[in-house]
Amino acid sequence: MADYLTANRAKIKAIIGLGDLVTGSIKRVFDQVGVKAGEIPVVGWGNSTDTTQEVLSGFVNAAQWQDPHATSYMALSLAAMASSGIPPGFDIITGALYEKDTAGIYDKILSAK
User: Fold this and answer.
1) What is the distance between the alpha carbons of residues 43 and 6, in angstroms, rounded to a whole number?
2) Among 6, 55, 67, 104, which is most buried by a count of CB atoms within 10 Å?
3) From CA 87, how far away is CA 97, in angstroms rounded?
4) pLDDT in 10s for each residue of the chain, 113 residues
């Protein structure tokens, strides 16, 4: 990622981190190539303390939390409803987009504090 950013920095207007490893590595990569926090807008997955810390420090603008327990539980509940003849005619949101003002909530959950 550092090599790509170094070679193409002038062309990069924003970054979407498609995965926790990518989004959680933004600060390290930006530090390697001399990009300041907030200089390039970044959004992406946010299921790691690396990412919550990067949101809190301004390297990542927003991240998506997806609670794995809620995802599994709600999917199984819908499947049970459907198998019982109850049509699950609604959507269930099991994630949340968070920014600096709420990143601490997810940091606490992920670090088991």
Assistant:
1) 19
2) 55
3) 28
4) 999 999 999 999 999 999 999 999 999 999 999 999 999 999 999 999 999 999 999 999 999 998 777 778 888 888 899 999 999 888 887 788 999 999 999 999 888 86
d(CA 35, CA 45): 20
Structure tokens at 103: 């990143």
Q: Which two tokens stand for residue 111?
A: 């670090």
Report the distance separating Cα 33 and Cα 102, nearest Å. 28
Burial class (CB in 10 A: 0-12, 13-18, 19+), 51: buried
- Architecture of the CATH domain 2-66+96-110: 3-Layer(aba) Sandwich (3.40)
